[in-house]
From TrEMBL:
SMART domains: SEC14
Alphabetical list of InterPro entries matching this protein: CRAL-TRIO_dom, CRAL-TRIO_dom_sf, CRAL/TRIO_N_dom_sf, PI_Transfer_CRAL-TRIO
Pfam families assigned: CRAL_TRIO
Segments traversing the membrane: none
Protein name: G3051 protein
């Protein structure tokens, strides 16, 4: 939720100017070059409305990516958080060909999960959904939140501040990635979280977020966008609520991982060849960490 959006469309000259403003950071890491495609830069320009503002935010994102290395998070490192089906990226898309992320609080979650584990799982999901959206050509994703269980003291979930951090991370570093968000069954306690983050949301982003409390409202909010066979019964769909398949998610995430890391390795090979041609020390090219090398 909270992926910044704005009304200004980026022109080619602005893209070149924005790229030049952050070229010093891009030159430091081939993974940042892969991230900063023209389409990516256009999203930052659209979200911020000017080259100066887009450059400021993009520099922060590039510095964050350089330090946090979201591109290096591998599915095997976060699978424990996915076992119960709390957060699920679907293999199928909505009616506008956008990836769908389901977040169901009623689904089980691993007890003892740390804030950092939650964050890495969330970021890996955003990276995967972004890769899927780019391959399809939609650029944006759909988020469906089922908040049933939010008020139940037995529900295992991140701390309040962790939840705020998850939203802020998506907002700050994944601009123009949100196509639609539907929050289903928001309880009274949920609105404290909403009041904490909503002042920081762009008005266009807010316009993409809707709330549905009753069965008919949920159906009315989701039916125009998502086929019933992709949704669980509790969200007005035809899938039994207990039909979550980790294997389906596992296959999808491994496939997306393979594509993401292949793209990074190709970029690193190009950098190494360019360094060799320029007479530089090829060993200075930065290899992928062993933890993310593709078998």
């Amino acid at each position: 939720m909270g992926w910044l959006s704005g009304p200004v469309m980026a022109e080619e000259g602005s893209v070149a100017e924005l790229r030049a403003s952050v070229q010093d950071l891009l030159d430091s890491d081939p993974a940042l070059e892969v991230f900063a495609s023209d389409a990516c830069l256009k999203r930052f320009l659209t979200a911020r409305g000017s080259v100066a503002k887009a450059s400021q935010q993009l520099r922060k994102t590039l510095q964050w990516r350089s330090e946090y290395k979201p591109h290096s998070i591998k599915w095997d490192e976060v699978t424990d958080c996915a076992q119960g089906g709390r957060l699920e990226l679907l293999a199928d898309t909505d009616k506008q060909k956008r990836p769908i992320i389901l977040y169901r609080l009623r689904a089980p979650s691993r007890e003892g999960t740390t804030s950092e584990e939650y964050m890495r799982f969330w970021v890996h999901s955003l990276e995967s959904a972004s890769k899927m959206a780019d391959e399809i050509g939609s650029a944006k994703s759909v988020l469906v939140f089922d908040m049933e269980g939010y008020s139940d003291p037995k529900t295992i979930m991140p701390s309040f501040m962790t939840r705020v951090d998850l939203i802020r991370t998506a907002q700050a570093h994944y601009p123009e990635r949100l196509g639609l968000a539907v929050v289903c069954n928001p309880p009274f306690l949920f609105w404290a979280l909403w009041r904490s983050v909503s002042p920081f949301l762009d008005p266009v982003t807010k316009s993409k977020i809707s709330f549905a409390c009753k069965d008919q409202e949920i159906k009315g909010a989701l039916e125009p966008h998502v086929s019933a066979d992709l949704l669980y019964a509790s969200l007005g769909g035809t899938k039994p609520d207990d039909s979550y398949s980790f294997d389906r998610l596992d296959n999808l995430m491994r496939s997306l991982d393979k594509k993401r890391f292949a793209e990074l390795e190709a970029a690193q090979l190009l950098e190494a060849k360019a360094a060799k041609a320029d007479g530089e020390v090829v060993a200075d090219a930065k290899p992928l960490p062993a933890a993310v090398t593709i078998a």
